[in-house]
Amino acid sequence: MESVEPAAAAAPAGPGAPKLLARRVREMFRVYPKALVGDVDAVHDLRVAARRMRSAVSLFAQDPEGKRARRADRTLGALARAAGRGRDLDVGIDILEALPRGTSEANERLRRALRASRARARGLSREELLDLDVAHLRRDLRALIAAAVSDRGVLTVRLMALREREQGTIDRELTTGRAWPRPDQLHKARRAARRLRYAAEIEDLVDGADSGEAARWRSMQTRLGDIQDRHVLSEWLSFRERRAVRSGDLTLATAAHRSLGRVKADAARRTREFLARRVAQKAEPGV
Fold first, then answer.
1. Which residue has the higher pLDDT, 112 or 150?
2. Average pLDDT estimate for 82-91
3. Contact 42, 35 (CB under 8 A)
4. Per-residue confidence (pLDDT) for residue 283, from 0 to 100
5. Which of 45, 239, 244, 263 stands the most exposed, by the fewest C-beta atoms within 10 Å?
6. In whole angstroms, what is the distance from residue 145 CA to residue 63 CA?
7. Other beta carbons within 10 Å of 263
8. Where are the domains of the chain?
9. 249 CB burial (10 A radius; 0-12, 13-18, 19+)
10. DSSP characters for 147-209?
11. Cα separation of 199 and 84, whole Å?
């Protein structure tokens, strides 16, 4: 039998590891059928549930580096990516719709093109979800639940390692004094904050308490996510501008260029506000 890290036994106040893992599995597969037919809310819920499931597996599997756990993690990662394929463009449409419309037909053409890109992304998302070996994933998850580690001491060790790793990532990518982090650095910090959030949620469930840590990391994840959404839309608008220039459609190119400028300015403003808030928080006593 594979061994786990030695630690002092402790009785959890909340649900044990098998029950918590089983709950995560139910949450994920409850929304899976609706996600397959393109329900927007279900697709979002499926992506979040898959990520929460990955976090739970890494913390509760008897051997997180074992073959079964790693295979489940890969499939869950693929599931989350497939479910998220059209999400960025969903948000992009909301951002673009919030910009001043004016009376230009080119602006409406731009919005139609973005909606068409979203429709294609949703189609690819459904195809990728259908291609996943969900039956094998379910078998792996059942086996992982049956052998889940409930020892609070083991969970503590794993949480400490996760926090050290992910907080190190955030500090490295958002080093105080750096003039301006790149979009990829902000994105890496966002992903680290997301993993810290899901780990904190699990710890709170196990302990039957609310530490406030999950809310803190979720707030950072959300703010960085708002910036990332605008970077993604900027890339799409830049692509549409170049394409319009190549085809000689200068009216559409101008509309894309103007929207691109507004979206970039909004992203820059949000980045400044995020960095200023982070500096202020780090200067607070005890933070």
1. 112
2. 83
3. yes
4. 63
5. 239
6. 12
7. 23
8. 17-283
9. middle
10. T----HHHHHHHHHHHHHHHHHHHHHHT-TT-S---HHHHHHHHHHHHHHHHHHHHHHHHHTS
11. 21
The answer to whether the beta carbons of residues 81 and 121 sit under 8 Å apart is no
Closest CA to 2 of 72, 85, 62: 62
CA–CA distance, 108 with 202 (Å, rounded to integer): 45
Number of residues in the chain:
287
DSSP state of 287: -
Q: Which amino acid is at 260?
A: L
Q: What angle do CA 194, 200, 202 make, to 5 degrees?
A: 110
What mean pLDDT is reported for the chain?
88
Residue 277 vs residue 100, higher pLDDT: 277
Q: Which CATH class is domain 17-283?
A: mainly alpha
Residue 102 predicted with pLDDT over 70 = no
Query: Which range (151-165, 174-188, 247-261) has the least confidence?
Result: 174-188
- What pLDDT, in 10s, does the model give residues 164-211? 999 999 999 988 555 688 999 999 999 999 999 999 999 999 998 899
Structure tokens at 14: 């909340």
- pLDDT of 284 > 90? The answer is no
**What are the DSSP calls for 16-75, one per residue?**
-HHHHHHHHHHHHHHHHHHHHTT-HHHHHHHHHHHHHHHHHHHHHSSSTTSHHHHHHHHH
